Amino acid sequence: MANRELSKAEWLDKAEAYCARSEHCAADVRRKLTEWGAPSDLFDEIEEILYERDFLNDARFCQAYVHDKVAFQAWGRVKIRAGLQALHLPSSAISDAMNAIDETQYKANLKALIAQRKSDSEEKRMRFLLQRGFTYDEIK
Predict the structure, then answer these.
(1) What does the pLDDT look like over 102-138, one tens digit per residue?
(2) For residue 62, with 0-12 CB atoms within 10 Å meaning exposed, 13-18 middle and 19 or more buried, which class applies?
(3) For the segment 39-86, what is each residue's pLDDT rounded down to a tens digit?
(4) Using CA atoms, how far apart are residues 95 and 99, in angstroms rounded to an integer?
(5) Which residue of 2, 31, 107, 131 sits 20 to 30 Å from the alpha carbon of 72, by its own alpha carbon?
(6) Which fold has domain 3-56?
(7) How far is the CA of 38 from the CAs of 8, 26, 91, 135, in angstroms?
């Protein structure tokens, strides 16, 4: 069956299955629907239903995003916040998630990155850490 023949219910089922596999935000779902060739006039309705059925939850997504970026990619606060803002998520959800950062893990990440770049010049190390999203004050 070609994508253009799918009904709204089938598009919704695909979106729900996508959201059930891992945490996603509305921007991710819209991007995926576009890739699949879904009619754009269904996007708002599908998004609304996904929120109602709790397949999409901005606060939960922000928490998962922040946790994963700190735990697995060792990003700093600046880069994490910018990533969430780029997804057009509510400021309150972003702030709550940012306030829940595990400080022990966060500081350990920064120390490990500094140690990893020990042989670099101070300027090069500073640029690297700033690009990873750490603030100047955190690095010092």
Answers:
(1) 999 999 999 999 999 999 999 999 999 999 999 999 9
(2) buried
(3) 999 999 999 999 999 999 999 999 999 999 999 999 999 999 999 999
(4) 6
(5) 31
(6) Arc Repressor Mutant, subunit A (1.10.10)
(7) 9, 15, 29, 41
